[in-house]
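Entry 12.
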Amino acid sequence: MSIYVPLTLMLMFSTLVSAGQVSRWYSAELVAQGQQLFRDKCAACHGNNAEGVPDWRRANEEGDYPPPPLDGGAYAWRFSLEQLREHIQVGEQVEDCERPSMQVRFTTDETDAVIAYFQSKWPERIYQAWQSKQVLSATQDDYAEEEAKQHSSTRWLKQHLSGARILHGEPKKTPAKGLTEIKVSGKYFYLTEGGRYAVIGNLIDLKTGRNVTRLNQDIETRQLISEYPVKDMIIYPAIGQERTHLTIFTDTSCPYCLRMHREVPKLRTEGVTVRFVPYPRQGLEGKGYEDLSSIWCAEHPREAMEEYVESQVVMAINDQCDRPNALAAGYELGNAVGLKGTPLLIMRNGERIRGYKNADDVLSRIGLNR
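Predicted 3D structure (tokens):
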């Protein structure tokens, strides 16, 4: 029997208060089942008690972050139940660790049991904050359910991924006979005819050597970045004739981002215009968000950026901000392109350079090295 809890039932639970606490959606039995699954499949990365690793906020040079705590000490509470399921079932590479992904073959029931286990570790105030977000996402969940009905060719994928958001509707045709492409939260899936089987990874044309998946990603990335207002970027123009431009997603709380800023002068002298887009990696609240806001809303953003890079001095937020939506739009853009860590560098053609690289390495990747 499925343990999926309908949203309407969750909302009803949120109104039940016992001894000053919000009633939780899972049972003690489900938590016990989840504890065993978590320790078998998840503890190697997240710890037996979902405590994560001590330095989970610090990225490596590639921009990858260690596994965060799931016990309420990080940001898991910001995700809906459907999003938590998707994160577990789709999986992704993190520093020195890998999420279970589809190969683990967690059923929906098992996935929910794992979530119940680590949510049982959440303090009451964290759980209440999470529960409040479920009410706000009701309309989105209803939309996703209706979308699932409309696109029957993805029904197996949606069922396996517990209602994951399909980002571009019906599958697109590919050059490979019998395979269509669908995008799920930044990842590309290839479906066989009828949508019964899914392959995750890169589609390679062995005749031409072209990576079809990456080419599609580059095209989509270019389009998405072109829709972000240039006036909301902090731009360092090339010195002399511009040879190309580079768009960098940055966050002041990321030490490798600060190192990346120090490579800008040399890039500029080689004819590269550098354009910074803000990406508050911890979301639209907290110190990281406030520091980025102080820069983007400063009277002279470039000078504020340079001051922060050199001395981490935070300027007061300008109440008359000229870029009131820049951070929210940058956060949304980063998520849309599938950003997993900062800094992320996007070349003019849409290709990516992940993590910190010195100016010589960047110029070599761009093709401007001498």
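Annotation: The first helix runs from residue 7 to 14. Residues 1-20 have pLDDT under 50 and may be disordered.
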